[in-house]
């Protein structure tokens, strides 16, 4: 619920109780995208820290809904916990960047989105090796997309622009934000049909990868690969348009 006044100390407990559901929602979205040794309980614990931090630092005078502020803090706390676990190795980042660069270069050469086997060939590895590498770096894709894209107080991320930004949902959006939303839409349109379907079902419909596999009649492993590859492509394509 929106809060239109600065909460008193006692109100902070109410803020937390009213928004506990956000921790569950964000944990559910991220549970398949974090290291295997970080389970849902670990994610939720980190998310709770973010919610507590949001309740302590929330200032409604800045004209921000608590829900928006809390989502940013919860997500940030989970990412911070992942960083503390020293999971972000230079080797994985190098692999992610290599995949992204290869896909981008192939798009320029071919004038279309490259197939998996074409990316693998360009990287001088087998298709199985390529798909295994995509799986290895998929979590980095999630983290990169969760990092902030703009400098606003809300710290909005790529995924914030990906989720339910229908006309009329942001009547006060400024021109810069509208332009960024447009760039995100352009990038999404460049994904393959299957990748767009996975992204739409996962982030808009909030289906699990198992449920998406049933809808698209693919294996859960293939859905995971499509999701991972889509995140890597989105990051590479968006970086090329923003920087």
Task: Give a structural overview.
By secondary structure, the chain is mainly alpha-helical. The chain folds into two domains: 1-87, Rna Polymerase Sigma Factor, Chain: A (Orthogonal Bundle), CATH 1.10.1740.10; 89-243, Butyryl-CoA Dehydrogenase, subunit A, domain 3 (Up-down Bundle), CATH 1.20.140. Helices cover 70% and strands 0% of the residues. It has twelve helices and no strands. The chain is elongated and about 60 Å long.
Short description:
With about 240 residues, the protein is mainly α. It has 12 helices and no strands. It folds into 2 domains: about 90 residues, Rna Polymerase Sigma Factor, Chain: A, CATH 1.10.1740; about 160 residues, Butyryl-CoA Dehydrogenase, subunit A, domain 3, CATH 1.20.140.
Which structural traits does this protein have?
Butyryl-CoA Dehydrogenase, subunit A, domain 3, 70% helix, 243 residues, 2 domains, Rna Polymerase Sigma Factor, Chain: A, mainly alpha
